């Protein structure tokens, strides 16, 4: 019983009062039901019971005060959190119940027994610190504020602390927890090709404390951690460095997201990377879910006859173009029209957002497809002229494909089997233009560009040849697709 806290004694006092009051009420009820009893006897009995009640309260109060002693040490009811390298105050106060002639205060680490600070007397001092960078509130000791400030906390400062006050007849203490928080670097992502159909994804981040949680997923939201290698190491200042690696073969994720999370202060750092941003020339199959997200940005295009080279033949619907055997009669020149290159622009242009369209190239052996800037030189040959403002995928013969922009030389592309339907996907805000074999969901090439003006899809059907290049380029109108995962795609990659 000598170790009972004051709250236990207070609870006991309330219990005694409740029981005594209830007994008194019951006693009076019984007396009222027995009118034949002597009135004076009843009165004396009631007075005796009330006296017992008061004596019980006094006794319990006395015991409570004697157990509580002349003072109580109080600290916070919640852990103290500090950022690495910052100053933090560990709060502790002494509440006096009666005057004490001398009161010693000690701060210590109970797990190791190491002393932090000792004040021989909070009224007169002195105070001695046993750790560099410890300060006490000297002017507030007399009022009971025995808190300390730790300067430039380190990871090793995390843990339990004990504040103890001692007099000649009594001792009281409180314990508190100090948590150190360090927020590390934004995750760095890298993607490299190990073989023709194998990629390695790596995420790294440094400088976390405590050990962080990791979220590692692909563009479909699938958790990659069970198939990944995760390394956690203590680096500088005992902080945690993490490295996650995932090797994919076969169905390769077209994007990954790495999230490092400090649950103590709920801080997250996120990095997302697409394969075609790291490996613009890598060929890989896009997952069905990612392909659905790309196709959710499908636009229906029509060709602009005012921009068509005079030799081109457009259908009335504006969805097909081929080279003619002769210059079209009645076609007048204008500033918008291509004069040398046999090309035509789409009527729709883009200055933001994500857009996808498909072009049927059939068995044609010569064509160019891609994007051109609004200021593209339409009176000169597009290919081979610097700074003409275009990015395209081109076919030059039976087996030769090239990725061409205004910075020669062109890059060879090997789509494999006959390429019949080309998918074109532009992300204006990220400066990315990607080409796909739409029938096989195969990524062919991605241009990294800095779009600074409005861009237009352009189409060059190649010179007319009745044997190898007589087919037109066609713009198919795909059926409307549900925008599967659009909200996730926007959250991860933006417009």
- Strands, total number: 32
Distance between the termini: 69 Å
Sheet with the most strands? 6 strands, mixed
Give me the Rg, rounded.
41 Å
Query: Mean pLDDT, as a whole number?
Result: 83
Residues in helix, %: 10-25%
Strand order in space, largest sheet: 2-11-10-5-6-7
Uncertain residue segments: 479-495
From the helix content, strand content and strand pairing, which structural class follows?
alpha+beta
Q: Which geometry do the CA atoms define?
A: elongated
How much β-strand is present in the residues?
35-45%
Question: Helical stretch count?
Answer: 5
Description:
The protein has 495 residues and is α+β, with helices and mostly antiparallel strands. It has five helices and 32 strands. It has helices at 6-32, 39-68, 275-278, 288-295, 486-493; strands at 71-74, 80-83, 88-90, 93-96, 104-109, 114-119, 127-129, 134-136, 148-150, 159-166, 171-181, 188-195, 198-208, 213-218, 229-234, 240-249, 255-262, 267-274, 284-285, 312-314, 320-323, 344-345, 354-360, 367-373, 390-395, 401-405, 411-413, 421-427, 432-437, 442-448, 455-460, 473-474. The strands form eight sheets. Strands 2-11-10-5-6-7 form a six-stranded mixed β-sheet, with no helix packed on it. Strands 22-31-24-25-26-27 form a six-stranded antiparallel β-sheet, with no helix packed on it. A five-stranded antiparallel β-sheet has the order 19-30-29-28-23, with no helix packed on it. The longest helix is centred in the first third of the chain and has 30 residues, at 39-68. It is elongated, with a radius of gyration of 41 Å. The relative contact order is 0.09.
